[in-house]
UniProtKB/TrEMBL annotation:
It comes from Herbihabitans rhizosphaerae. Gene3D superfamilies: NAD(P)-binding Rossmann-like Domain (3.40.50.720). The lineage of its organism: Bacteria, Bacillati, Actinomycetota, Actinomycetes, Pseudonocardiales. This is Putative NAD(P)-binding protein. Pfam families: NAD_binding_10 (PF13460). Residues 10-96 form the NAD(P)-binding domain. PANTHER family: SACCHAROPINE DEHYDROGENASE. Signal peptide: none annotated.
């Protein structure tokens, strides 16, 4: 890895800055850390990141193919922390592959996955790791890790994911565009659906309002949403059932999302206005409180003919730090040759045990644990009865 050059595009954003921090931290990343090339439209802002963490600065405009190609030339891996992912599409990945580099993206949602698969990168020995963030990404890696903690053969999973945190313009814009594309948080799927007996079943669940759920300090609304990410998890693990709930604390964000659903802004000004509406909704829901984000999982399975139960929980106070760190781990896996040619999602490409160990050590991660609850097998987890 000592000769590796990693290009980071979007280094001045909240997730990008944290990715650079993780890439240059030998305690987190391991040694040697890669040489960094930091890119952005405003070299002065990028220079501030370089002054703090090291690395060279290269001006790059994503609308300029020649400048993008020049940035990627000589890189071993290019990491995109830029947004909105829905408008960038596959252009950074194509430039990276053309330069002989592998590619990672802290976003890179379902539409980008389809675009990149169509390019057949295996033919040139190139690889990409997408959705290398907290959600999607770590959200379905943690259940894979839980399976290895003594669950045995997995049977079912209930997940509750959400919290309160102010948004950036880029993350809010991606959310606006994903809603218009029929997705939530970048992963397409179906509201009120659940996984049953090997397939998605529509209208199996209902929205639960003003309920208490363990590990969440506030009463909340749990909105069922079976994403493509969750479906892949269920299929990969052979689950009989999976219930997935996106959690909302307060009403402002949920109301804003419902108002934006069903259409996408048709120009940059409208997109920014919608993004800022979501940012304001997030700010109102936070309401001066400390930010937190929780991913809580209840899994059951069978081992040696007996039922097993495990509870898993991640709690953090900065999702951008976690997202940047997962992006850095995707780079690490690519540099180490652990990812075969092709297009992969981070939850399926990264080693669960190693990822959990490293993420657990982040300053923003307050808890990342597995709890054996087999002895409490008679305590069923039900929405609204927790």
């Amino acid at each position: 890895m000592n000769e590796s050059i990693v290009g980071v595009i979007g280094a001045t954003g909240a997730a990008g800055r944290e990715a650079v921090r993780a890439l240059t931290d030998p305690t987190f990343f391991g040694e040697p850390t890669p040489v960094l090339r930091l890119g952005g439209r405003r070299p002065d802002a990028v220079q501030e990141i370089a002054d703090e963490f090291g690395g060279s600065v290269v001006a790059v405009d994503l609308e300029d193919p020649a400048a993008l190609a020049e940035f990627c030339a000589g890189c071993t891996v290019v990491l995109s922390c830029a947004g909105p992912s829905y408008t960038i599409g596959d252009r950074i990945a194509r430039a990276a592959w053309a330069a002989g580099a592998d590619f990672a993206d802290v976003s890179g949602y379902d539409p980008v996955y389809g675009q990149l698969v169509a390019l057949n990168p295996e033919a040139d020995g190139r690889a990409a790791v997408l959705s290398a963030g907290i959600y999607p990404g770590l959200s379905t890696l943690i259940p894979r890790w839980l399976v290895s903690q003594g669950l045995g053969d997995p049977v079912g999973l209930s997940a509750y994911v959400g919290g309160i945190e102010e948004a950036t313009v880029g993350s809010a814009a991606d959310l606006v565009l994903s809603i218009g594309d029929g997705a939530v948080w970048g992963s397409s799927g179906a509201g009120l659906a659940a996984w049953r007996d090997g397939r998605r079943q529509e209208h199996r669940l209902r929205v639960a309002e003003d309920i208490e759920v363990p590990f969440f300090p506030d009463r909340l609304t749990a909105q069922p949403f079976l994403s493509s990410e969750a479906e892949r998890l269920a299929a990969n693990l052979g689950l009989v059932e999976l219930d997935w709930y996106n959690v909302f604390i307060g009403d402002h964000m949920r109301t804003a999302l419902n108002r934006l659903r069903g259409g996408s802004p048709d120009d940059p000004e409208a997109l920014e206005a919608s993004a800022r509406e979501l940012m304001r909704a997030c700010e109102l829901d936070v309401g001066g409180r400390e930010s937190y984000y929780v991913m809580a999982y209840w899994m059951h399975g069978r081992a040696n003919g007996r039922p097993t139960r495990l509870t898993g929980v991640l709690r953090c106070d900065d999702t951008f730090q976690v997202t940047g760190a997962v992006g850095a781990l995707a780079v690490r896996a690519l540099l180490a040759g652990e990812v075969p040619p092709g297009v992969h999602m981070a939850a399926e490409a990264l080693d669960p045990a190693d990822t959990v160990t490293r993420i657990r050590g982040l300053p923003s991660v307050l808890a990342l644990e597995s709890i054996d609850t087999t002895s409490a097998a008679d305590e069923e987890v039900e929405v609204g009865a927790l």
